[in-house]
Structures are given as C-alpha cells and as structure tokens.
Amino acid sequence: MDPAWQERYGTRVDAYRLPTDEQERRGLARQIAADGYRLLEAVFASTAPAWLRQMPAISVLRTVWVQQFSRTVTDGEEEVAWRGKDDLPPSRAMVASPYDP
C-alpha cells in the first residue's frame, strides 16, 4: 500500500468533506481514480493471489471504476478522467449505493 493512502483514505467516510472548489474536487477525483486503478492492476497482476480477484468488493470496485472514470494511456502517459453525466451508463445498470450489488 502506498503510505500516502493512509492520509487520503484513513478518515471515516462519514467524517469526510469534499473540497468546495470545482478544480480541487476534480483533482481529488482524478487522484482517487488513479489509486483505484493502481489497486485493480495489483489485484489482477499475474503475481497476485487468485482469491483476490474473486472478492465481491473487487468486482464492485471494478464495475464502479468502469462506470465513473475513463483512462487512456498515450506515449506512456496515463490520463484519468471523471466521466461526465452524458457519458454514464443508464441508471438501471449503475452501482449507485453499497446496497445495489
């Protein structure tokens, strides 16, 4: 685990406040997306234990990341973006709460 993750994700969700500035919020979303992709890459790496890929939480994370973020790699540079409201799947197909799965 990246030690910076403790600082970013150590606070309980119910005590967390999003930045009020739009640019800061988008920057935070990009950072969270990049961290999630990093976790998914580690879980699906050939050296990772197979049981990790079978965890329901990983399946939900992967689904939510596909729904909420896009990722492109150009010339070795990764670009992560938050999907716009016009680029989201239909609401009936979305995971919108922890109870949906």
Any overview of this molecule?
- With 101 residues, the protein is of the alpha+beta class.
- It has helices spanning 3-9, 22-43, 50-53, 56-68, and strands at residues 69-74, 77-82.
- A two-stranded antiparallel sheet has the order 1-2.
- Helix 2 packs across helix 4 (56-68).
- The longest helix has 22 residues, at 22-43.
- The radius of gyration is 15 Å and the shape is globular.
Structural descriptors:
101 residues, alpha+beta, two-stranded antiparallel sheet
Proportion of helical residues? 40-55%
Report the structural category: alpha+beta
> In percent terms, what proportion of residues is strand?
5-15%
The CA-CA distance between the termini, in Å, is 26 Å
Outline the biggest β-sheet: 2 strands, antiparallel
Total count of strands: 2
Q: Report the order of strands and helices.
A: HHHHEE
Identify low-pLDDT runs: none
Map the helices and strands.
Layout (H helix, E strand, L loop, with lengths): L2 H7 L12 H22 L6 H4 L2 H13 E6 L2 E6 L19
Antiparallel strand pairs: 1-2
Brief rundown of the structure:
By secondary structure, the chain is of the alpha+beta class.
